[in-house]
Structures
1.
Amino acid sequence: GAGVSQSPSNKVTEKGKDVELRCDPISGHTALYWYRQSLGQGLEFLIYFQGNSAPDKSGLPSDRFSAERTGGSVSTLTIQRTQQEDSAVYLCASRKSGLAGVGEQFFGPGTRLTVL
Amino acid sequence: DAKTTQPPSMDCAEGRAANLPCNHSTISGNEYVYWYRQIHSQGPQYIIHGLKNNETNEMASLIITEDRKSSTLILPHATLRDTAVYYCIVGSPGSGNTGKLIFGQGTTLQVKP
C-alpha cells in the first residue's frame, strides 16, 4: 500500500517568505508527527497529532512555526517569515493507533527546505 | 536530550554480522528500546523494538541485557544496502504518552565489500 507522502520534495524560498509543507499519512493512521533534520541539530521532534486531541506542540522552535491536521488526515506545516536557520529536511511520520506511544512510525521521504 | 549512547561509527565486512551497541543506563521500567535506521537521503526506517526479552524479526535481532542498561542490534548478514545511520531510542508508552522519538547522533555503519 501507499506509504507516507510529502510535498514538495524540495522547496527553495527567500528569507522572510512563508512556506507550507504538506504530509499525507498512511490511511487509517491516527497519529502523525513532524520532525526536522538539520546539519547542526540532527533529527528533532516538532509536533504530534493524535485524532481529535489537542496537538503536542512542545517541539516547535518558535511561534513562526504552526501546523494543522484537517479531517484527521492530511497535515500542513507552515513556517512564517522564514529564516536561514530554518533550512532543513522536514520529515513527517504516521503511526497506527493502539498501545499509546508504542509502535512503528512510518516516515515520509521529507521536504528539503532551503532558505536563501 | 537523548537517553542513549552509541559509538559514532562502525565498519562491517559484507556478509558478516554487524553488532551495534547502545547504552541506556538510565532506562526506566516501562521504557522500550527502539531501533531505526536512516539510509542516505531517505526518511528513517523502523527496525525493531523490545522491552525486556530479546526480539527477532526479518530484519534484525535485538539483545537486551538483563539489567536493561544496554542492548545490541544484530544484523546477521550485513549487505552493502545496510550502510546507514542506526539510531537507538528509548521511550515509554502509556496513557498520554505521544510516542515521539528523541533521536541522538546514532551510529554510522559502513558495510564494506
2.
Amino acid sequence: EAQVTQNPRYLITVTGKKLTVTCSQNMNHEYMSWYRQDPGLGLRQIYYSMNVEVTDKGDVPEGYKVSRKEKRNFPLILESPSPNQTSLYFCASSRRQGSETQYFGPGTRLLVL
Amino acid sequence: GENVEQHPSTLSVQEGDSAVIKCTYSDSASNYFPWYKQELGKRPQLIIDIRSNVGEKKDQRIAVTLNKTAKHFSLHITETQPEDSAVYFCAASILPGNQFYFGTGTSLTVIP
C-alpha cells in the first residue's frame, strides 16, 4: 500500500530534550516536505527536499533541522525543543515536484512542556 | 515572502447550496494554487489546483477560479453535501512548486 508514515504519532517532551520525528514514504517520491499546523495559522512549511542530499528552508525553519540521506526518509529534528514548537506536524511527499499531488502523512502531535 | 489571506474563516451553508471560499496572494510571481481539504482529525488532501495560465478549472462539483490581475483565487463548491464539511486550505507557490504558502483555513459546515 502506497503511504507516508510518521513516528511517533503523539509525543510529550520537555524543553531542551532533543527529539526526532521520522517520516518515510514507499512511493519512490523525490519531493518531501514538513509542515506544522497551528490553530488560526493554517499550515506552514518548515523544510522541503527535492531529492537525496538536497534540502531547503520553508517559511518557518527556525529551531528545526532535517536530513535526506535516503530517498524514502526525511526526519525532522528538534535539537532543543521549546514550548512554541508545540504543534501538529505533517510530512508530505510527491513524485517529483511539490506541484504534483502531495500525499500527507497521518501527522505527529507534539507537546513541549 | 508570499502572504496568502483566506476568507471567511468559518462558513455554514444549507445542504444543496453553494459555498465560496476566497484567497488573495501578494507575490505576483506565484503561479500555482492548490486547494486542500482536511476532515476532522485527518490529514490534508489535495482536491483541486490551478496554474496561472488557466482562469478556471472544474472537477464535478468543485471549481477554482483565478484572477491574476487582482491576485485572488476562489474555490466554488456547488450542490453541497454533508460530507463536504471540513476545513479547506488554499495555498500559493511558484512552479515547479517546492515552497508553499498556505492560507489560514476555512471551516465549512454543511447543514443537512
